[in-house]
Amino acid sequence: GAEPHDIAHVSAHATGTPAGDVCEARALAAVLGPSAGRAGIAATKSMTGHMLGAAGAVQAVAAVLALYERVAPPTVNLDEVDPAVRECGLDLIRDKPRDLPLTGPLTALSNSFGFGGHNVVLALRTP
Q1: How far, in Å, CA of 106 to CA of 17, rounded?
Q2: Of 11-15, 50-54, 64-68, minimum mean pLDDT range
Q3: pLDDT, mean over the chain
Q4: Of 66, 74, 100, 99, whose CA–CA distance to 14 is shortest?
Q5: Pairing between strand 91-92 and 40-42?
Q6: 23-125 — its CATH code?
Q7: DSSP 8-state class, residue 4
Q8: Which residues contact 74 (CB under 8 A, 6 or more apart)?
Q9: CA distance 81 to 112
Q10: Domain residues of the chain, as ranges?
Q11: What is the pLDDT of residue 64?
Q12: Distance of CA 75 to the CA centre of its chain
């Protein structure tokens, strides 16, 4: 299994709604604990828009590609971070891609949250 310090990247659900984004940020901070500032967090929806039923699959593919290429995509057009999100101490990847470690196994999370409690977090790991 993976430990919080193993998480190199999180593909956040991040729909851009104040309540949803703050809730997700607080959950990530709680789960990752002291490692919250180490996992690069990005929102692919900032580039693709919300694809509704396809959103989770697209985010998962983006997370797989980030692991494969060892480069995490950015959140684009993020001009202001909600103060409640900032308080969580997360490492938000903004404006440009970020290199991930070149050696060793990598772990990424891909978050997808839906209406009515249809929620999933995929944990993906390189060999």
Answers
A1: 29
A2: 50-54
A3: 94
A4: 74
A5: parallel
A6: 3.40.47.10
A7: G
A8: 42, 46, 93, 94, 95, 96, 97, 98
A9: 20
A10: 23-125
A11: 98
A12: 10
Task: Tell me which H or E stretch contains 29.
Answer: helix 18-32
What phi, psi does 9 have (nearest 5°)? -150, 145
Pairing outcome for strands 119-125 and 107-113: antiparallel
pLDDT reported for residue 52: 87
> Both tokens of residue 32?
């990752």
Categorize the per-residue pLDDT at 51 as very low, low, confident or very high, splitting at 50, 70 and 90: confident
CB of 27 within 8 A of CB of 56?
Answer: no
Contacts of 33 (CB under 8 A, 6+ apart): 4
Instruction: Give the start-end residues of each E strand in 1-127.
Output: 7-11, 40-42, 71-72, 91-92, 98-99, 107-113, 119-125
